[in-house]
């Protein structure tokens, strides 16, 4: 079973913050801008822990590829 990590408390223990940032970490976001600030603080914590996100897969395709697939389906159905 995975252990739940309290990143907010780890971040508070690891660095000094201004009063607003500390309040955000302790009490959570109350508005959209507060949630942006928490996102920035979470990113700071991940950098301190050297946690890297997995790159997203490349799901691009061109219109020509899509159009060819549609044509192939049309020819199979007729």
Short description:
By secondary structure, this protein is an all-alpha fold.
Write the layout of secondary structure elements.
Elements: H1 7-14, H2 19-27, H3 32-48, H4 63-77
Helix pairs in contact: 1-3
List keywords for this structure.
mainly alpha, 78 residues
Describe this protein's structure.
The chain is 63% helix and 0% strand. The chain has 78 residues and is mainly alpha-helical. The protein has a domain at 1-52. α1 packs across α3 (32-48). It is elongated and about 65 Å long. The protein starts with 6 loop residues before the first helix and ends with a helix. The model has no long low-confidence stretch (mean pLDDT 83).
Order of SSEs? HHHH
Rg, Å, rounded = 23 Å
Distance between the termini: 53 Å
Strand-residue fraction? under 5%
Q: Share of helix among residues?
A: 55-70%
What is the molecular shape? elongated
In total, how many beta strands? Answer: 0
* Quaternary organization: single chain
Q: Overall mean pLDDT score?
A: 83
**Largest sheet geometry:** none
The low-pLDDT segments are none
Helix count, DSSP H or I runs of 4 or more residues:
4
Structural class assignment: mainly alpha
């Amino acid at each position: 079973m995975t252990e739940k990590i309290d990143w907010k408390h780890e971040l508070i223990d690891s660095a000094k913050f201004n009063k607003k940032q500390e309040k955000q970490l302790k009490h959570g976001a109350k508005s959209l801008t507060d949630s942006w600030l928490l996102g920035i603080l979470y990113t700071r914590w991940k950098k301190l822990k050297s946690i890297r996100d997995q790159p997203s897969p490349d799901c691009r395709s061109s219109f020509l590829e899509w159009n060819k697939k549609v044509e192939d389906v049309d020819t199979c159905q007729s």
